[in-house]
Amino acid sequence: MVEFRGVSKVYQTGHPAVDNLNLSIESGKITVFVGPSGCGKTTSLRMINRMVEPTSGTITIDGRDVSTIPAHELRRSMGYVMQQAGLLPHRTVIENISTVLRLNKVPRAQARKRSMELLKTVGLPESMANRYPNQLSGGQQQRVGVARALAADPPVLLMDEPFSAVDPVVRAELQQELIRLQRELAKTIIFVTHDIDEATILGDRVAVFAVGGRVAQYAPPEEILRAPVDDFVANFVGRDRGFRRLSFSSGESVPIHPAQAVLWDGLPLTDDDVAAPTSHDSGTPRWTLAVDVNNRPLGWFVPDAQSETKTGTLIPGGSLFRTGDPLRNALDAALSSPSGLGVAVDADGQVIGVVKASEVLAAIESTREGRN
Ligand code: ADP
Ligand code: MG
Q: What gap in Å lies between CA 220 and CA 26, rounded to an integer?
C-alpha cells in the first residue's frame, strides 16, 4: 500500500502545487489520478519515487517512509512510464528493455531472454527486438516503454499520461492491454491522465484532482460518475455522465426478441427471399435482418415498395450488442439502428436476436430506481 499523509509541495514559485494530500492507494489495483492540467498530478506521482521531494508530509510504501529509502533504490523498485516512451534512440528495442536489468547486473544472456518474454507480454512480435525506436509507431513505442518498466518486475508501476500521445484507436487497445496485464501481473499501478473516460475505464479507484493541488473526490469510478461530490467534479465528469454510467450496468435484463432474418448471398434480395412479415400484434419486429452464411449480421433489408421486381436494398445496421456487454452498448445498438432495433449477437458474432429501444430505456429506468 502507498500512503500519502498530509503531503504538500510548494515549488519556489509560490502557491502549492499539491496541497495537503491524504490518500491510501491499494496494492494490486489500478489507481488513477485524473484532473485538468496543472493541478498537481505529476508532482504527486513523482513524489512517490522521490523524483520530487515533498515540502511537508510523508509518503509510505508498505509502512516504510520513502524519504528513508535511497532514491536510486526506490526508483529501481518502481517502473516509470511517461507520455513519450523516452526510449534511448541509439539502442534497439531489446537493449532498451534490458537497460534496468543490466543496471541490476543481470547477465546479458539472461537479460535478453527476459526482455524477449516481456516483448510478448506487451503484445509485440519478437521480430521487433532488433529495431530502433524510430522504426516503431507511437503505440509500439509505448508498449516498449511498458515492457522496459516491467523488466525488473517491480511491484509498483507509475504511469504518467502514457497513452495521451497516441491516436484514439491505438489508445483504446493499449488501455485494454493494460487491464489484461494488470490481471495477469497484479501490479500496483498508479496512472495519471487528464481524460475522465480513460480514468473510468482503467481505474479501480479514481482520485479527481482540482486546481490548487487538492483531491476533490476519491472513489470507485462508478461512484464518481453517479454521485460527484461538488460542482467541480460534476463539471469535470461532464454532462453525459448518466450515459457513461451505463457502461457499468449489466445489459442482461434487456429482453432479446427473435429476429426476422434472411440469408444474403450477395445477390439483390427480393421479397420472395423474405418471409412475410408477421402481424403487428405478435410484437415481432417487422424489419428484416440480412445475415451471411455464418449468421453474422450484414444490415437491414428494406423492400422497395413500388418495385415490380420486388427487390429491396440493404441499409447498414448500426452497432452490435454482444452477449455480456453493458447496458450502454444495448442503447447504442438500438439508437444507432435505423429500425430502432439493436442487433444482439453472441461471442462469435452470430445473430441471437434484437433488442428494442423502448425496452432498453425501461431497463435503464429500472437500474436508476434500484439505486435509490
Ligand atoms: P499536472 O500533472 O496535474 O498537470 P503538475 O504536477 O505538473 O500538474 O504541476 C502542478 C503545478 O506545479 C503547476 O502549477 C505547475 O506549473 C507547477 N510546477 C510543476 N513542476 C514545477 C517545477 N519543477 N517548478 C516550478 N513549478 C512547477
Ligand atoms: Mg502532468
A: 12
Residue 37, ligand 1, Cβ within 6 A = yes
Of the given ranges (165-169, 203-207, 368-372), which has the lowest mean pLDDT? Answer: 368-372
With helix as H, strand as E and coil as C, how does 184-199 read?
HHCCEEEEEECCHHHH
Give the global pTM.
0.69
Domains along the chain with CATH numbers:
2-248 (3.40.50.300), 261-371 (3.10.580.10)
Mutate to test the pocket of ligand 1, among 11, 47, 192 (most ligand atoms within 8 A of CB): 11
Q: Whose CA is nearest to atom 13 of ligand 1?
A: 38
Can you give the pLDDT at residue 229?
Answer: 94
pLDDT in tens, 277-336: 433 434 444 688 888 888 999 888 776 666 555 566 777 777 899 999 888 889 888 888
Residue 46 clears pLDDT 80, i.e. is over it: yes
Residues 156-178: pLDDT tens digits? 999 999 888 777 778 888 898 89
Helix locations, 192-343, DSSP H = 196-202, 221-226, 231-237, 241-245, 327-336
Our answer on whether the CB atom of 42 is closer than 6 Å to any ligand 1 atom is yes
Q: From the CB of residue 279, how many other CB atoms can be counted at a distance below 10 Å?
A: 9
Ligand 1 atom showing the smallest separation from residue 12 Cα: 25
Closest residue by CA, ligand 1 atom 11: 17
- Highest-confidence segment of 82-91, 250-259, 296-305: 250-259
Q: Where are the beta strands (DSSP E) in 11-126?
A: 16-25, 30-34, 56-61, 64-65, 78-81
Report CA(42)–ligand 1 centroid distance (Å): 7
Pick the residue whose CA is nearest to atom 5 on ligand 1.
40
323 exposure class (CB count in 10 Å sphere: 0-12, 13-18, 19+): middle
**39 CA distance to ligand 2 centroid (A)?**
8
Task: Please tell me the distance between residue 199's alpha carbon and the centre of ligand 2 in angstroms.
Answer: 14
Q: Are 246 and 222 in contact (CB under 8 A)?
A: no
Residue 337: strand, helix, or coil: coil
Least Cα distance to 208 among 172, 242, 232 occurs for 232
